[in-house]
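idk why but the lab printer keeps eating my pages so im just putting this in chat instead. protein + flavin-adenine dinucleotide:
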Amino acid sequence: MNDHVASGPVADEADVIVVGAGPGGSAAAYHLARHGVRVLLLEKTEFPREKVCGDGLTPRAVRQLIRMGIDTSEKAGWLQNRGLRVIGGGVRLELDWPELASFPNYGLVRTRMDFDDMLARRAVEAGALLRTGVNVTGPVQNDDGYVIGVEAKVGPGREPAQFRAPLVITADGVSGKFPLALGLTKRDDRPLGVAVRRYYHSAVKADDDYLESWLELRSAQDPARLLPGYGWIFGLGDGRVNVGLGILNSSDAFGKTNYRHLLTDWLGSTPAEWGLRDEANADGPTLGAALPMGFNRVPHYTRGVLLVGDSGGMVNPMNGEGIAYAMESGEMAAEVAVQALARPFGPERERALQAYPAELSLRFGGYYRIGGIFVKLIGNPQIMRLATKYGMPQPLLMKFVLKLLANLTDPRGGDAMDRIINGLTKVAPSA
Ligand SMILES: Cc1cc2nc3c(=O)[nH]c(=O)nc-3n(C[C@H](O)[C@H](O)[C@H](O)COP(=O)(O)OP(=O)(O)OC[C@H]3O[C@@H](n4cnc5c(N)ncnc54)[C@H](O)[C@@H]3O)c2cc1C
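predcted complex ->
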């Protein structure tokens, strides 16, 4: 057990229980604790632990780190990046993150082994009580079906336990077992991705100051062949890179491909000096997981439970980014919970809690709907080939595309591109 994890006699009741201490859960717990709310953060694993991810953080995620009081300077050991390098259609374009009032102009890369531990620590420093080794198995409900706590199996002995709170925030990731236990299944009309990643030692690519994104993947076995999916190479600054690829369910290859072989085949086509062709440079196995996108689980509030991050299907369909959205929804859920707890149980409190899905839909609903259309379009290889061929050589257009895909605009007083993107997301239906 870590030094930042609760030990000794254990509180079994709180104002809010947060299920899962990934970025979404830790952000929610931090913002609740900052308001003086008694929060119990329950996590089934022990920190530090691995989580399958690309480890890339855009300025949107950096803003959330800053809101949690985390020093993201290079002095504090972070590797900052300046933007995105996009490779495709025979073009290699370096696009700097936009200069905006609302977001910093740099991104970061950090392994989740480190990152999630750090966020959980911040929540504890703010006053949250973290308990690891607690596997939440389902809700405790009153006679009206309202959730008043959680059932769990605790520690290596898996002893049964119950924790009580008038509100529960579920941030249990893509598996979403907690919302599932309440009957909230995944929506099939929303995009879904699958991605795999692997670490490699690479002296050449480890200290990159751009996040590298590949729109076209070539097969080493058959260089004339384009492989399905999109790839990334993110330098970690510690001699290693995080390399991976993702496929969307709008692609014909979705579910019919061996993603591990696909990764090896693509990496076989990269320059030998990068070291990514060589099994001896690999650090650990290729691991994968699903990316639940575009609000693929709703409602985001029901019966005393607020859904945060992957649990509520909040990965951005346009770029596969999920950390920023988990942290942002965690903060939004915390703010709403604080207001709700100040009201008596009943209709008044319910009214306050309904603000959470309403806010989410206002902030991301229209954008995600456009994302859904985007995913369908790029699922067609012909459209993708044309877009890459004719779009990539247009720097101004690509600047716009970067803002759109990374969801980086100023809501007020931005430039013409910001106004177009904000206008589009406002007119798109948000449900
Ligand atoms: C291969 C891959 C690459 C990706 N690359 C990126 C990227 O580069 N950048 C990016 O922003 N996003 C990326 N994503 C998406 C990102 O990983 C997720 O969107 C993000 O982790 C969501 O955070 P979360 O807090 O909602 O859930 P998670 O990070 O999944 O955290 C959930 C937590 O809940 C715990 N938990 C689960 N069930 C229980 C239970 N029953 N009881 C107690 N605890 C429980 C888990 O142990 C975990 O700690 C990638 C995803 C994949 C699969």
